[in-house]
Amino acid sequence: MPKITEIFFDCDNTLVLSEELAFEACADLANEILQTRNIPDRYTGEQLIKDFVGQNFRGMMISLQAKYHFEMEKDELEVYVKKEEDKVIAKLEAKAKPCVGATEELEKLFESKKYGMAVVSSSALRRVRASIKKVDQDKFFDHDKVFSAATSLPKPTSKPDPAIYLHALDAVKKTAAETVAVEDSKSGALSAIRAGIPVIGYVGSYNGEETQTEMGKRLTDLGAQVIMTHWSEFEKCMAFIENAPAAEIQSAL
Q1: How far apart are CA 57 and CA 75, in angstroms?
Q2: Long-range contacts of the stretch 60-66 (C-beta < 8 A, 24+)
Q3: What is the pLDDT of residue 183?
Q4: Residues forming beta bridges with residue 9, ordered by sequence position
Q5: How far apart are CA 8 and CA 165, in angstroms?
Q6: Rounded to the nearest 10 degrees, how much is the dihedral formed by the CA atoms of 185, 167, 11, 143?
């Protein structure tokens, strides 16, 4: 098995506790869209997280259209995408906090120089940069090693589409076998797995031991190699993947 030399990190609720803040803003806009279509249902941020965690706003709106059987014109969707980005960034710049233990592990990895490091997110690039800057993690990532499915690709997409991971692999000139991804959501894990990348499933941002156990099982069932409940377990999780037989990695993917 090739030596692992690169780590890809999801951002939202993997490095930065941003999902709850972001979904508060998304709920307001989703409800506005539903109201203009005379659809009586309304979302809270918590309900949106339950239904659409791991998707960016564009992906959520596509799912919302499918669920409620309506269509948005491209121009209207783009207006709302921009509105959402501005609203979420304002909330993140005011309130975002790092995931517990994430910054300490990034510091150790950065100082060790053992691996290259990149951020691979579904969220808009402005939002990802605002998130990691607010929590002082931007210093660990080169400017050109922050990738966004919403912004970095010729055609915007969202996880679980593997396009952003394939793009990141190409950009850093690595094979999937030389890389590990850290993901907290089903859509994120599936995106990396579809790109052939071994996954550490992080569940530390979910509330309660029962929820963490449930999410860990879901991520494992998808093909995540190992589950991490706290960032202090990161080295152990990396060692597990690095020492696993190649056949075992491939069978899980």
Answers
A1: 15
A2: 60/26, 60/30, 61/30, 61/33, 62/158, 64/30, 64/33, 64/34
A3: 98
A4: 119, 182
A5: 9
A6: 180
228 and 198 Cβ atoms separated by less than 8 Å: no
The helix or strand, by DSSP H or E, that contains position 128, with its residue range, turns out to be helix 125-134
Classify domain 6-17+97-252 at the CATH class level. Answer: alpha beta
Question: CA gyration radius for the chain?
Answer: 18
* 152-159, Cβ contacts within 8 angstroms, sequence gap of 24 or more: 152/125, 156/58, 157/59, 158/55, 158/56, 158/58, 158/59, 158/62, 158/122, 158/187, 159/54, 159/55, 159/56, 159/59, 159/122, 159/185, 159/187, 159/188, 159/190, 159/191
Q: Under a CB-based contact definition with an 8 Å cutoff, are residues 167 and 153 in contact?
A: yes
Cβ pair 15, 132 in contact under 8 A? yes
* Token pair belonging to 27: 């709920």
DSSP label at residue 33: H
Determine the angle formed by the axes of helices 74-95 and 19-36, rounding to 10 degrees.
150
C-alpha 107/C-alpha 8 separation (Å) is: 15
Torsion sign, CA atoms 10, 11, 12, 15: positive
Model confidence over 31-59: pLDDT tens digits?
999 999 999 999 998 888 888 877 888 88
Confidence of residue 71 (pLDDT cuts 50, 70, 90): very high
Beta-carbon contacts of residue 171 (< 8 Å; ≥ 6 apart): 118, 144, 145, 147
What global pTM score does this model have? 0.84
- DSSP bridge pairs for 200: 182, 226
